[in-house]
Amino acid sequence: MKVWVDDGVCRGHGMCLTLCPEVFSLTDDGYAEAMTSVVPTELEEATREAIASCPEQAIKET
């Protein structure tokens, strides 16, 4: 599984970071970013929950 955050859509709610801090972090500007584009298998469920919980739907799975 691969993920990325559309920085033009993200508004910095931080839900992804709350749900999966091993994959997501916040930039200095307060917006989410994926720390790795390839998600480890053991974090896929939490990552999918973060994708579903994003209020702006800014996280994309590829």
TrEMBL record:
Ferredoxins are iron-sulfur proteins that transfer electrons in a wide variety of metabolic reactions. One of its GO terms (molecular function) is electron transfer activity. Keywords: 3Fe-4S, Electron transport, Iron, Iron-sulfur, Metal-binding, Transport. This is Ferredoxin. Its cofactor is [3Fe-4S] cluster. The keyword Iron-sulfur applies. Residues 1-29 form the 4Fe-4S ferredoxin-type domain. PANTHER family: FERREDOXIN. InterPro entries: 3Fe4S_ferredoxin (IPR001080), 4Fe4S_Fe-S-bd (IPR017896), Fe-S_cluster_ET (IPR051269). The keyword Protein biosynthesis does not apply. Pfam families: Fer4_15.
